[in-house]
Amino acid sequence: MIEHQVRVFGSGEQVARSAELAWKLAEVAADPVAVPDDVTEMVINRVIDNAGVAAASLERGPVVAARDQALRHAPAPGRAGATVFGLPARVRVSPEWAAWANGVAVRELDFHDTYLAADYSHPGDNIPPILAVAQQLGLGGRELVRAIATGYEIQVALVRGICLHAHRIDHIAHLGPSAAAGIGTLLGLPVETIYQAIGQALHTTTTTRQSRKGTISSWKAYAPAFAGKIAIEAVDRALRGQGAPAPVYEGADGVIARLLDGPDAAHVVSLPAAGEARRGILDTYTKEHSAEYQSQALIDLARRLGPAVGDLTQVTSIVLHTSHHTHAVIGSGSGDPQKYDPRATRETLDHSIPYIFAVALQDGDWHHERSYAPARASRPDTIELWQKITTVEDPDWTRRYHCSDPAEKAFGGRVVVTRTDGSTLIDEIAVADAHPLGARPFGRAEYLAKFRRLAGSVLPAEEQDRFLEVATRLPQLRPDELAGLTLTPAPPLTASGTDGIF
């Protein structure tokens, strides 16, 4: 790996484009390096994972609306088009709209993979736009695997090196460039073209984090789909010779100087050297539970603690000692009263560790629908327990959150339960059970089981079998087989009939 120093350039400073971060990202994307077998296997796992969580969300409102919009945009004459989850494989739409609809389906339940470092990300959001373009242009599984590996590599590198959250910029600003880079790899584009696409994608996907604070709406699911859609459009424009703002990261009025750490900022972004394999996907991890990733380990801890806590009516307080990120984003340190409101949206409850910990402690379980049901959130005994749960930042958990040593890095915390008699129960957990270093790490069998669990009530068994057979052959798929990477219920879904502008 090469550690690239990223700094702001002065207005009059003459710097070669090869010194710009966008160019270095494009060089990685254009490098025709082979994909290692273990990376290929993980790409397959994540394609399966995305499809499972998409299946479970097919009839949810945001997904229905996005699918309706996609159905209004037919592919251009002479192009194959791309498939949309829920529709027959023969139904094709323009690729940017397929990426939009499928991206919302993948993201709606907050249930696919994650990578946390200086910033946050859900790298599986790269897959819908890259797949849509592959289907549109008649490419095969080998090209798709290489492209997805690039998308993950670029996103992981950016998340490690540049913190957006500290400046309240939404993490899709890392997704637009990574998806554009992945599409560049897919199409075998030259560095210059990918560079322009990355610049455009970054410039147009840099938005604020209000989408994940206060009253969190369905836009939380739409935001990454928007970035994927924009990435496709950016590559299309770059292919037509259209340029981007430059230097988009380092310019005097660029992203770093004006939206992030200011003109004196310095970042380090580590990227593979020429000829070095892209292995970033192996540092990412999926979710066993449908909730913000920083709650994963704490859900597991709550499930384990339930029997030991005993009578929950005798609990006077529960304090979660955890990292700054967990405390400030999904904990009481956010200052968001909505995190304690039983009338809050599902998206808000998904980002409330006091609510999540209370329900997991009471139920000994977490479910992507039942645990968020309005009736569940408004149970009096749940509300009473929920209001007793707070978070505090513990500097050591913050240090472990940012630690580069995988054996020390942690996303959990320590819980202190105090009872009415003054006794306390203390326990802690470092990583989720499903994490690669957890109690029950996810492998292929667990990805398949998660897919079956989520798709079982939505797809006939034969459709589940068909999809999994195609997905597990991903590197060998011919272009005409790539349409098999979709999901079709019986009967297939149709447009909802709701009118909009399109």
General description of the model:
- It holds the Pfam family MmgE_PrpD_C.
- Belongs to the PrpD family.
- This is MmgE/PrpD family protein.
- The chain is an alpha+beta fold and 502 residues long.
- It has two domains: 282 residues, 2-methylcitrate dehydratase PrpD, CATH 1.10.4100.10; 137 residues, 60s Ribosomal Protein L30, Chain: A, CATH 3.30.1330.120.
- The chain is built from 19 helices and six strands.
- Strands 4-3-5-6 form a four-stranded mixed beta sheet. Strands 1-2 form a two-stranded antiparallel sheet.
- It is globular, with a radius of gyration of 22 Å.
Percentage beta strand: 5-15%
- According to CATH, the fold-level topology of the largest domain is 2-methylcitrate dehydratase PrpD
- Point out poorly predicted stretches: none
Number of helical stretches of at least 4 residues = 19
Largest sheet composition: 4 strands, mixed
Specify the helix fraction band.
40-55%
